[in-house]
C-alpha cells in the first residue's frame, strides 16, 4: 500500500490508461487476507474504480460484512470501463474516449474508401458482451449494420445484409460499413462474416476487415471523460466524507446506505437479489 499525495496525481486528468494499475482477480478465497490488511492499515473507507469485475468484487466485500467486521466501512465504486457494462449504470468513465477512437477510425476508413468504389469494410470493436461501443459507434459513423450480443442474429440475417449491400452498390453511394462487437456471436466471427461477404458479394463488391483491438483503450481522454471523471470523483469523496462522519458516530455499520455505485439507477437490494443469486 502506497500513500498518494496531491503532487503525485498532478496532470492525471489528461492522461489515459490506469495509472493506479488494474487486476481482474476477484476477492473470493482472499476475503480473510483482505480483511486483515484493512485492519492492519486502519482503512476506514474504500473507493474502487473499475468495470464489471470491480463491481462484482465490491458486492462480494459488501456481502462479507456478515463474517468480517472490517468490511463494515463506507464503500463506493466509480464505473470505469470502455465496455460500459457496469450493471445499473448509464455511463462508465472511458467509454466516451473509446467511442471517439472508434468513430474517428471509421471516418478515416470511409474516407479511404471514397476513391475506391464497391467496397465493404467490416470493423470489429471491443466491449466484451456489451454492444454499447459497436451500436453507438455504428450510429455515429453511419454503418449499414451492427452485430451485437444483445440482439441475436443468424445466417438469414447475414444474407439479408449482403443483399442490402448488393442493392446499395447500384446507387451513388458504392461503399459499405459493418461493425461487429467482439463477442456478438461465438460462431459468426469476424473472419466468418468477412469470408461470407467476400463470397456472396463476388462480382458486386469486395471486402476488407479491420480489428481495432487495443487502440480503443489508448490515447488521451476526451473532454467529456475528463470532466465526467472529475465530477463523479468529487461526488464520491463528498459521499465518503459524509458517511465516515455518520460511521464514527454510530460505529461499524452493515446498512445498505454505506455502499454505493456512482451513477447507479437501481437499488443495491435489487442488484443483490438479481445478480448474486
Q: What report would you give on this structure?
A:
The chain is an alpha/beta fold and 277 residues long. It has two domains: 6-93 and 221-275, Rossmann fold, CATH 3.40.50.450; 95-217, Rossmann fold (3-Layer(aba) Sandwich). The chain contains eight helices and seven strands, in the order αβαβαβαβαβαβαβα. It has helices at 31-40, 52-63, 95-113, 132-141, 155-168, 190-200, 223-250, 268-275, and strands at 46-50, 75-79, 119-125, 145-147, 175-181, 206-211, 259-261. The chain has a four-stranded parallel β-sheet with strand order 4-5-3-6, sandwiched between helices. α3 (95-113) crosses α4. It is elongated, with a radius of gyration of 23 Å. The model has no long low-confidence stretch (mean pLDDT 87).
Secondary-structure map:
Elements (H helix, E strand, L loop, with lengths): L30 H10 L5 E5 L1 H12 L11 E5 L15 H19 L5 E7 L6 H10 L3 E3 L7 H14 L6 E7 L8 H11 L5 E6 L11 H28 L8 E3 L6 H8 L2
Parallel strand pairs: 1-2, 2-7, 3-5, 3-6, 4-5
Helix pairs in contact: 3-4
> How many E-type strands?
7
- CATH topology category name of the largest domain: Rossmann fold
Q: Which radius of gyration do the C-alpha atoms yield?
A: 23 Å
Average pLDDT value?
87
Across the major sheet, the strand order is 4-5-3-6
Share of helix, binned: 40-55%
Secondary structure class reads alpha/beta
Number of domains: 2
In angstroms, what separates the terminal alpha carbons?
A: 33 Å
What is the count of helical runs?
Answer: 8
CATH structural architecture of the largest domain = 3-Layer(aba) Sandwich
> Strand count, sense and closure of the main sheet?
4 strands, parallel
H and E order: HEHEHEHEHEHEHEH
At the first level of CATH, the class of the largest domain is Alpha Beta
- Percent of residues in β-strands: 5-15%
Spans where pLDDT lies below 50 across 5 or more residues: none
> What global shape is seen?
elongated
